[in-house]
Amino acid sequence: MKKNQINVLVVEDSPVVQMLLKHLLNNDPQLHVIGTANNGQEAVEFVAGQKPDVILMDVYMPQMDGYEATRRIMETQPVPIVISSATLTTEEVGATFHALEAGAVAFVEKPVGLGSPGFDQMTQKLLQTVKLMAEVKVVKRWARDRRIGPTLAARSAAELPRRTERIEVVAMGASTGGPPVIQTILKGLPKDYPVPILVVQHIAAGFLDGMADWLRQTTPLPVQLACHGATALPGNVYLAPDGCHLGLLPGRRIGLSKTDPENGLRPAVAVLFRSIANICGARAVGVLLTGMGRDGADELKLLKDKGAITIVQDAETSVIHGMPGEAIQLGAARYTLPPEQIATLLVSLGNRQ
C-alpha cells in the first residue's frame, strides 16, 4: 500500500460483484482495498480488528444485512459507511434509507455489467463518493446528543426579525447526506404545519419513491412526488421527481419542467429557489442543506435580498459543507443552524401565521 492511500473495506455477498468492486477501487491510485467481507457479521468483526478509512456496504446479505451492520459499527467503532445498491426493489431502497438513518453517510449505485450503459459514469461516481466520504468525521451514534437545548431553541425564536408578511412556502435543497437531515427537520414539525414544503434532493434515479415512503413512515407529514399543476397544500411535502426541475407557479401551484440542467443538475436547487423568490419574495423560507458543489447558493442570496428568511445547515452537522458553505461565503444566510434547530425555527415561523 502506498502512503496516503485510502483504505477501503468492501462488504458484498456476491463473489462476482465483490471481485469487480475490488478491481475498480484498486485501479484508482488513491484507493486500496484492505479487506472484503461476505456479510454484515464479517464486516463488524473486521472493523473490531482493523479500522478502514471507509466501508463500501451492500444492503441485502445473509446472516446480517447492511442496515444492521451499519447500526452496530456506528455504535461501536464508527467508520464512514457508503451504502452501495444495484437492484431497485422497494425493499432494498427502503433498507438503504434505514441504513442512512443508522449512520451511513452516503449511498451510490453499484456499477455492474462491464460495458453496460452508464457503467463508466457509475464507476466514476462510486470512486468519487468513496474518496470524499473517507474524509467525513463520524461519531458513535449513541453518544450523539440530538436534543434541542431550550436556550438555543428559545434564542432562535427570539431572534426572528419583526415581520408583517406571513410565510407562504418553505423550500429546501440538499445533496450528499441530505435524506437523514431532511427527515430530522420534518420530524420536528407538527402534522398541521401551515405551509407547503418543496424539496429538491440530489439523488440517484429510482430512489425517490423509496425516499418518499421512508419519510412518510418516519415523519408526521404527508410526503409525495410533486405533480405539475397540482396545488401545493399546507403541511404537505413535495419532492422534485427524477429528471425534473421543481418550482412554484402563481396561485401556489407546482411547476415541473425539463429545461436544461443547472449546475449540471436536474432537478436543481437553483431553479426551486429562484422560482419562490419570484413568486413569494419575502414571504418565503429557503433552506440549504448538506451537499457538494454550490447549487442553490446564489439563489439563496437572491431570496435573502428579497427579504425572505434564509437558513443553512452548519458545518459541524453537514456530511459535505459545500452548498451551505458557498451560501455563507456569499452572505446569503440569515441563520446557520444544525437540523434540529432548523426545525425549531420553522415551527416558530409557522406559529406566526
Describe the structure.
- This protein is of the alpha/beta class and 353 residues long.
- It has two domains: 138 residues, Rossmann fold (3-Layer(aba) Sandwich); 202 residues, Rossmann fold (3-Layer(aba) Sandwich), CATH 3.40.50.180.
- It is built from twelve helices and 14 strands.
- It has a seven-stranded parallel sheet, with helices on both faces. A five-stranded parallel sheet has the order 2-1-3-4-5, with helices on both faces. A two-stranded antiparallel sheet has the order 10-11.
- The radius of gyration is 20 Å and the shape is elongated.
- The N and C termini lie far apart (60 Å).
- About 5% of the residues have low confidence.
Largest sheet: 7 strands, parallel
Number of helices: 12
N→C terminal distance: 60 Å
**What is the structural class?**
alpha/beta
Report the principal-axis shape.
elongated
Could you say what the CATH architecture of the largest domain is? 3-Layer(aba) Sandwich
- How many distinct folded domains? 2
Radius of gyration: 20 Å
**Low-pLDDT ranges:** 143-158
Strand % is 15-25%
Question: Helices, strands, pairings?
Answer:
Blueprint: E1 6-11, H1 15-26, E2 31-37, H2 40-49, E3 54-57, H3 66-76, E4 81-85, H4 90-102, E5 106-109, H5 119-133, H6 150-158, E6 169-174, H7 178-187, E7 197-201, H8 208-218, E8 223-225, E9 237-239, E10 245-249, E11 253-257, H9 269-279, E12 284-288, H10 297-305, E13 309-313, H11 322-329, E14 335-337, H12 339-351
Parallel strand pairs: 1-2, 1-3, 3-4, 4-5, 6-7, 6-12, 7-9, 8-9, 12-13, 13-14
Antiparallel strand pairs: 10-11
